[in-house]
Amino acid sequence: MTEAPAREGLLRGSRDFRRLLLAGVISQTGDWVVSTGLAFYVYDLTGSTLSSAITLLVARLPDVVLGSVAGVLADRWDRRRLLVGADLLLAFGLLPLLLVRDPSQMWIVYAVALWTGVLSTLPAPAQKALIPQLVPESQLVRANALHGQSGEVARLVGAMAGGIAVSAGGLTAVVLLDVASFAISAALQAGLRVPGRPPAPVTTVGGQWIDGLRMAARHRGVRLLVAYMMITGLGEGIFGALAAPFVADVLGGGGDAYGLFLSVQAVGGIAGGLVVAVYPGRAAPGPLLGGATIVFGLLDLALFTYPLAVASFWPALVLIGLAGIPGAAMTAAFTTLAQGAGGEERRGGVFGLLGSAHAGTALLGTALAGVLAGLLAGSIGGAAGIVVTLCVHAGGLLAAGLLTLTLMRRPHG
User: Fold this and answer.
1) How many other C-beta atoms can be found within 10 angstroms of the C-beta atom of residue 170?
2) Which positions fall inside the Major facilitator superfamily (MFS) profile domain (predicted)?
3) What dihedral angle (degrees, nearest 10) is formed by the CA atoms of 209, 211, 216, 220?
């Protein structure tokens, strides 16, 4: 098969992959609608940053605690039914938000945020474990690139739609949009035709989770992916905490500049996903992951340090947009390696373990960013402290890329 027909066949020739991809775009768009709209509504309703922080915390904490369990369930249960069930439960779980009218009802918001946080751990490992059942192995890097790109499309569209919806129709409009997105996603995934797969070992969920940890201890490839995810997760936590201060205090921009900065980041991710999906894909996923991570780290290093010499905003937009290309390559290559690391019967467990490692270190990175930037602000100044702390993130990317290239060259033992 030539490369051109292969690229054409990935979408045109795979009805089920198209349905999975479209379902992911729609449901993730709904996620961004409700996360954006709810964040604005909660602050507008309560005037409390503490309430906003609690809502965010209870929604994200399940990723740390339950990520591995979600991966085990993706191996034990029928993945198609798991995805459909999660979408339907997420849709019904949002409906109590329609009752919220005053700050005394914030407990409803917290309960819904926890419910959606728990259920939202299920789709990612199940979908990623399902992709190799729907596309040929030769197309996995492209398929993973397109699947990763769907999250960037959802962020770009959903964040904008959430802001418009909460302004035009309040929380009711936000909730109904998200409920509709989950219902459509469930309908699309209910029609998936999934080939059979080897049965998972018959153990308790806890026993299979422990088996997954043992496999990580024995399997060098899984250990490398966990280490990679911990390093980059720490950096993502740092960047997430300091992106707004970087735009405001280092680049001298306002809220509109911050919105533009994030939008260009999403557009860069979309463009990067298209590049990776169209590229002939001859590079093995290991070298692709290492090389792309190093390029991403160098672009981030340039992004964080150029304001020390040049007082201009537009280079930041160029650099963060360009970073989308290696960023998409990283996502596609990493997912492809993870899909082959544990075998079909433990694929979901691998993704759950990696998700927990990422979520935990991202929270740690968020805390580290606040402490380190604060300490440095007192000695070298606020803006310089932000830059130095962000350079820790860039340095972590360079280390992760070099580690990957080095270990991937060694023979498996």
Assistant:
1) 14
2) 16-412
3) -160
Amino acid identity of 397?
L
Integer Cα distance of 11 and 399 in angstroms? 35
Q: Are 225 and 339 in contact (CB under 8 A)?
A: no
Looking at residue 371, its amino acid is V
C-alpha–C-alpha distance, residues 20 and 147, integer Å? 9
Residues near 164 by Cβ (< 8 Å), separated by ≥ 6?
Answer: none
* Calpha distance 45→167 (Å, rounded): 13
Does the pLDDT value for residue 153 go beyond 80?
yes
- State which amino acid sits at residue 24: G
Q: Which H or E element spans position 384? A: helix 382-409
Return residue ranges of the chain for CATH 1.20.1250.20: 12-193, 204-413
Q: Cα separation of 218 and 206, whole Å?
A: 19
Beta-carbon-side half-sphere exposure of residue 4 (alpha carbons within 13 Å) = 0
CA–CA distance, 369 with 374 (Å, rounded to integer): 8
343 in the Ramachandran plot: left (φ > 0), alpha (ψ -120 to 50) or beta?
A: left
Nearest partner of 158 among 136, 135, 142, 181, judged by Cα: 181
Does residue 268 surpass a pLDDT of 90? no
| Fold held by 204-413 | Growth Hormone; Chain: A; (1.20.1250)
- Output b/e per residue, 80-113; b: 16+ Cβ within 10 A: bebbbbbbbbbbebbeebeebeeeeebeebbebb
Cα 390 to Cα 304: distance, rounded to the nearest angstrom: 7
Q: For residue 322, what are its two tokens?
A: 């360009």
φ/ψ bin of 18: left (φ > 0), alpha (ψ from -120 to 50), beta (otherwise): alpha
Rounded to two decimals, what is the model's pTM? 0.70
Chain centroid to CA 360? 13
What lies within 8 Å, CB to CB, of 40 at 6+ separation is 162, 163, 166
Average pLDDT of every residue of the chain: 79
How far is the C-alpha of 131 from the C-alpha of 336, rounded, in Å?
10
Out of 53-62, 118-127, 213-222, give the one with best mean pLDDT: 118-127
* 29, 158 Cβ separation under 8 angstroms: yes
Q: What is the pLDDT of residues 61-95, one digit of tens each?
A: 787 777 667 777 777 788 889 999 999 999 999 99
CATH fold for domain 12-193: Growth Hormone; Chain: A; (1.20.1250)
| Number of residues written out for the chain | 413
In this structure, the number of other CB atoms found within 10 A of the CB of residue 8 comes to 11
